[in-house]
Design a protein that fits this description.
The chain is of the alpha+beta class. The protein has one domain: Alpha-Beta Plaits (2-Layer Sandwich). 22% of the residues lie in helices and 20% in strands. The chain has a four-stranded mixed sheet. A two-stranded antiparallel sheet has the order 2-3. Strands 4-5 form a two-stranded antiparallel ribbon. A hairpin with a 2-residue loop joins strand 2 and strand 3. The chain starts with a strand and ends in a 6-residue tail after the last strand. The mean pLDDT is 93.
Length: 229
């Protein structure tokens, strides 16, 4: 059974935002008004965080893409009273939207703040509705939503592999953010398969995980910047 995970090389990330845009487009993530954004109600399943190091004029801008960490020990799953958030056998933490009651316990329990509450029913102009992805549901008002590693792509890749009578290959299943990254900063695959590049990179000397001391066991690894870069 695979254990899907991600490695993000912070040396390669330029902060271009292609991963954010691809994620929004692929997963029908709605855009809120500036007034709602000011209230903290913006939604972004993948968000590029920025940090400035040093003092002017000797400053360096760092970027950190932050999807859901898909923890092996997810606190969000433990606190959901209706089992709307769950972790499957392959380590992907998902959401069952029709079951969610919007209590937001999971969002409060997540130390990475990667879960978002839908304050309003999403709306798109008529001219944009044709661009919605039919493979992904449009989440209603009053539920929590989050990154799913584009799980619908995994289902499609499995169906194609089954139809062709072969095993699923590493390149068959890649989330939208991985496909869109122009510098190859994001690598995805089976963390337990030594033939997958992601399994090798997680053992790199620069590899680290966010807030490891909390015991959440995140499956997103970061390669820290090299000295002098």
């Amino acid at each position: 059974m695979p254990r899907w995970g991600m490695v993000i090389d912070l040396d390669r990330c330029t902060g271009c935002g292609a991963c954010e845009t691809a994620c929004k487009s692929e997963n029908n993530v709605a855009t809120v008004s500036s007034d709602q954004a000011d209230l903290g109600r913006a939604t972004a399943w993948m968000r590029v965080m920025t940090e400035v190091e040093g003092e002017f004029p000797n400053t360096t801008m760092r970027f950190m893409p932050r999807p859901c960490m898909h923890c092996d020990n997810p606190p969000c799953v433990k606190v959901c009273p209706v089992a709307a958030t769950y972790i499957n056998d392959e380590g992907i933490v998902g959401q069952i939207y029709p079951r969610c009651i919007g209590c937001r316990y999971c969002a409060n329990a997540c130390p990475y703040t990667v879960k978002y509450f839908n304050w309003f029913a999403p709306e798109w102009p008529e001219s944009e509705r044709a661009h919605l992805n039919p493979d992904v549901s449009v989440r209603p008002k009053g539920v929590i939503e989050k990154c799913t590693f584009c799980h619908h792509r995994l289902q499609k890749a499995r169906e194609d592999a089954r139809a062709e009578g072969r095993e699923l290959r590493e390149a068959d299943y890649q989330p939208a953010c991985v496909d869109a990254c122009p510098t190859g900063a994001i690598v995805f695959g089976d963390l337990d398969d030594p033939q997958h590049r992601v399994a090798e990179l997680k053992h790199d000397a620069r590899a680290m995980r966010l807030m490891e001391d909390l015991g959440t066991e995140p499956k997103v690894y970061y390669l820290t910047p090299r000295a002098g870069t």
